[in-house]
């Protein structure tokens, strides 16, 4: 199987490549990065994909120069070496003729997602960059392993419609949605009573809003259980991440927002659960690792025979559950409001959060300003709300929401 990994230098991308080291029957056809060309070059030289893409065009140009320079250097023999036949033969056997095709920008991501020889596209880019490549892959009838929340949160209505018309298949990589997917396998949709999304509670679990006042990025980036990227770790601290997962589950599993419950499970052992009409609950348990959901998606519901760390019930353990505080973590309530409104409001919720998190990581706003700015953008968007926005409208609304956050960054009451 030929695999394309969009976002190969991020957390999911690097873990996907690590997993594939144990499955040599899978070939890496293409890799992409946003701007980390050093790691992308390292990955490329190890995996030898036919295609690469760098989202930032200036970085793509620099990467092309690196490969061209390497190719020229490794394929040019000086006269002294040429005279020495033994050294010449050695040099010939060692020379590196690897020279990938390198694309750039959104156009490049779209091209990679629809490559004729590609079987599965792993979409693990961060942010709304993932929407258009995912749509392209679905239109091309590819299998899509999706680790990009924004695609479903902002364009879920378009994705679902496209899936009905295409032979493409969508496999979720998020640990919570993978858990629900596993629990629903073999069950009847009409017998599902409730989806239960578990959350670790993040680094600020148990704190009130007042106690979170003044918290810095160094505090918010200390996740108790998971190793993730900076943006998603901040989202975990505000619980925006869980709000996004509620919206994602609503689209993926066609379950009303009202039937999706969030529960704090501190140990991150129960990754999510499903309650059925007879009161029975099925849950997926395991150690906090992305290995299982990545493998379950890549191998299309076939389980990997993995010999690494697993949950050991012979050891003493405890599971603790807590209801989330919608008062102290208002982003959860804002996410539900956006989901119930639907349409373009989910794009505003997501884009406003992305911009606010970026400002927080730059030390330009306080931690509590993040949900405050999201709420402000949602309020201002009411008059321009659209029920079924197109891709172009989604991208336009995204830009508006980001500008709205920028303009109000120093005016909100945190």
Structure in words:
- This is 1-deoxy-D-xylulose 5-phosphate reductoisomerase.
- Catalyzes the NADPH-dependent rearrangement and reduction of 1-deoxy-D-xylulose-5-phosphate (DXP) to 2-C-methyl-D-erythritol 4-phosphate (MEP).
- The chain is an alpha/beta fold.
- The chain folds into two domains: 2-172, 3-Layer(aba) Sandwich (Rossmann fold); 175-341, no CATH class.
- It is 48% helix and 14% strand.
- The protein is built from 18 helices and twelve strands.
- The chain has helices spanning 11-20, 37-47, 57-74, 79-83, 85-94, 105-113, 131-139, 149-165, 175-184, 209-212, 217-220, 230-238, 240-253, 291-298, 330-341, 345-361, 369-381, 391-408; strands at 2-6, 27-33, 51-54, 101-104, 120-123, 143-146, 169-172, 192-199, 260-265, 270-276, 281-285, 321-322.
- The strands form two sheets. Strands 4-3-2-1-5-6-7 form a seven-stranded parallel sheet, with helices on both faces. Strands 11-10-8-9-12 form a five-stranded mixed sheet, with helices on one face.
- Strand 10 (270-276) and strand 11 (281-285) form a beta hairpin.
- Helix 6 (105-113) packs parallel to helix 7 (131-139), helix 13 runs parallel beside helix 15 and helix 15 (330-341) runs parallel beside helix 17.
- The chain is globular.
- The relative contact order is 0.11.
């Amino acid at each position: 199987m030929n695999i394309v990994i969009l976002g190969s230098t991020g957390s999911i991308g690097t873990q996907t490549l690590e997993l594939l080291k144990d499955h040599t029957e899978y070939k890496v056809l293409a890799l992409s990065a946003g701007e980390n060309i050093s790691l992308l070059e390292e990955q490329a030289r190890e995996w030898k994909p036919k295609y690469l893409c760098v989202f930032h065009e200036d970085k793509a140009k620099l990467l092309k120069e690196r490969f061209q320079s390497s190719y020229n250097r490794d394929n040019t023999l000086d006269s002294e070496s040429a005279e020495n036949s033994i050294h010449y033969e050695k040099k010939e056997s060692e020379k590196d003729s690897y020279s990938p095709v390198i694309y750039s920008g959104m156009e490049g991501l779209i091209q990679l997602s629809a490559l004729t020889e590609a079987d599965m596209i792993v979409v693990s880019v961060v942010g709304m960059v993932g929407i258009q490549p995912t749509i392209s892959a679905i239109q091309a009838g590819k299998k899509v392993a999706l680790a990009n929340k924004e695609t479903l949160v902002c364009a879920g209505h378009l994705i679902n419609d496209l899936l009905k018309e295409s032979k493409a298949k969508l496999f979720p990589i998020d640990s919570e949605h993978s858990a629900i997917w596993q629990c629903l396998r073999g069950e009847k949709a009409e017998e599902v009573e409730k989806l239960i999304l578990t959350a670790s509670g993040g680094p600020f679990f148990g704190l009130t809003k007042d106690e979170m006042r003044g918290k810095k990025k160094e505090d918010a980036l200390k996740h108790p259980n998971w190793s993730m990227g900076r943006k998603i770790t901040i989202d975990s601290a505000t619980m925006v991440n869980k709000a996004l997962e509620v919206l994602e589950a609503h689209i993926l599993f066609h379950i009303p927002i009202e039937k999706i419950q969030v529960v704090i499970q501190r140990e991150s052992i129960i990754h999510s659960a499903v309650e059925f009409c007879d009161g029975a609950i099925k849950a997926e348990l395991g150690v906090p690792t992305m290995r299982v959901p990545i493998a379950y998606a890549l191998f299309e519901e076939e389980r990997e025979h993995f010999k690494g760390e697993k949950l050991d019930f012979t050891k003493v353990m405890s599971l603790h559950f807590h209801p989330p505080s919608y008062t102290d973590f208002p982003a959860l309530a804002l996410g539900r409001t956006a989901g119930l409104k639907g349409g373009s409001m989910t794009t505003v919720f997501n884009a406003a959060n992305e911009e606010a998190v970026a400002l927080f990581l730059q030390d330009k706003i306080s931690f509590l300003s993040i949900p405050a700015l999201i709420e402000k953008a949602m309020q201002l968007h009411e008059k321009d709300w659209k029920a079924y926005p197109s891709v172009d409208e989604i991208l336009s609304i995204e830009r508006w929401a980001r500008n709205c956050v920028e303009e109000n960054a120093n005016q909100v009451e945190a």
